[in-house]
Amino acid sequence: MGKAKKTRKFAEVKRMLNPKDTKIKKEPGKQKKKEDEVRHIEAAPTALFFQYNTALGPPYQVLIDTNFINFSIRNKLDVVQSMLDCLYAKCTPYITDCVMAELEKLGHRYRVALRIAKDPRFERLPCTHEGTYADDCLVNRVSQHKCYIVATCDRDLKRRIRKIPGVPIMYIRSHRYSIERLPEATMGGAPR
Questions:
Q1: Residue of 73, 117, 131, 137 with fewest CB within 10 Å of its CB?
Q2: Cβ–Cβ contacts within 10 Å for residue 62, how many?
């Protein structure tokens, strides 16, 4: 038996090193950086028991969003009286400066909503951050202080608030206010 003749391969390309190759050794400086970093883990508030917030109790503090006022007008609901009917307790509606700015930006069509928001029964909360995006403002405020109920009809805002544990959401369903994520013990007979 003879020796097999080796054929020459045409268009042979040099092998390139892949940056994700396991044979390449990583620099030791980068690994030390990660080890030296201190991870920040947010402490869970002591008021949260399982999924419910025990810090919530009457009189309730309700943060109101722009579209909640608009939908209340469309459904012909008085904001303060309907909150009282929903929660069976005294409620203090709060409006941030960002929500007021958003209502003012909406213009002439929403003048009734602006007039309702300027009602003396509503408390004003000053905002110190930059910009006037109301959704971010409400989410930040609720993340810092979990003593509020958020009243909104906005799907995206509801989705963002559901990720924050212990914050109930008030919304409008079938021409009345409903609330979710508030324990039955503090809720009485409020509709879900």
A1: 131
A2: 26
- Provide the CA 38 distance to its chain's centre, in angstroms: 26
Task: Quote the pLDDT of residue 136.
Answer: 93
What six digits make up the tokens of 182? 């508030």
Asked if 153 and 171 count as a contact pair (C-beta separation under 8 A), the reply is yes
Separation between Cα atoms, residue 156 and residue 9, nearest integer Å:
60
Residue range 93-133, pLDDT digits in tens: 999 999 999 999 998 999 999 999 999 999 999 998 888 78
Going 125 to 130 to 133 to 139, the CA torsion angle's sign is negative
Q: What are phi and psi of 184, to 5 degrees?
A: -65, -30
Name residue, tokens 């405020």.
141
Among the listed residues 174, 159, 150, 179, the one whose alpha carbon sits nearest the alpha carbon of residue 67: 150
